[in-house]
């Protein structure tokens, strides 16, 4: 029985998705993959369906009606995983900014170590980012420092999107009460795991910017993260805050 599921949201990732699928499914440890596609105009979902004929027992697809946001894509994936017997549930990008080989290191941190959340961290041992302009490195690094300061979390890479959750973490977070849909979703999930007392460990990884396809970052996503963190921390000070 395979106990690990990798959730990969996609929107116009036809240039990357086949290679990322084959890389993950060729690892020495067995993983299943769930693609959550937001009706990609480039026919990403059609390609995935063709690949499914080769991997009918390990590659799965959720097709959504439109571009509904990163957070809701992951929540759909989490709910799908919790309806099944997976014990380790991963977040991962489709564009190879996250190295598939590091999935095993994240898995081992939770399955063999004492961690309940393992974060593939760009900043726990310095700055491990390749192919980003300095302005973006400073923005990302500064955002993580800002979030850590506001929330009190001792996490170097608070905005990271390469993560392994043990099943019990997702079972204890009220996924229907997650407020953010962009990259602030990553912060909110970590914050709620932190408030619940789960052990969080950062695993150093090298983040490599995409070479194919287009980044989904926007000013609105950044604004949601900057201002949303303050609101999130403020709400957490009250007893009625729903984790």
TrEMBL record:
<dbReference type="GO" id="GO:0009247">
    <property type="term" value="P:glycolipid biosynthetic process"/>
</dbReference>
<comment type="similarity">
    <text>Belongs to the glycosyltransferase 2 family.</text>
</comment>
<keyword id="KW-0328">Glycosyltransferase</keyword>
<dbReference type="InterPro" id="IPR039528">
    <property type="entry name" value="DPM1-like"/>
</dbReference>
<feature type="domain" description="Glycosyltransferase 2-like">
    <location>
        <begin position="6"/>
        <end position="172"/>
    </location>
</feature>
<dbReference type="InterPro" id="IPR029044">
    <property type="entry name" value="Nucleotide-diphossugar_trans"/>
</dbReference>
<dbReference type="Pfam" id="PF00535">
    <property type="entry name" value="Glycos_transf_2"/>
</dbReference>
<dbReference type="GO" id="GO:0016020">
    <property type="term" value="C:membrane"/>
</dbReference>
<dbReference type="GO" id="GO:0004582">
    <property type="term" value="F:dolichyl-phosphate beta-D-mannosyltransferase activity"/>
</dbReference>
<dbReference type="InterPro" id="IPR001173">
    <property type="entry name" value="Glyco_trans_2-like"/>
</dbReference>
<protein>
    <submittedName>
        <fullName>Dolichol-phosphate mannosyltransferase</fullName>
    </submittedName>
</protein>
<keyword id="KW-0808">Transferase</keyword>
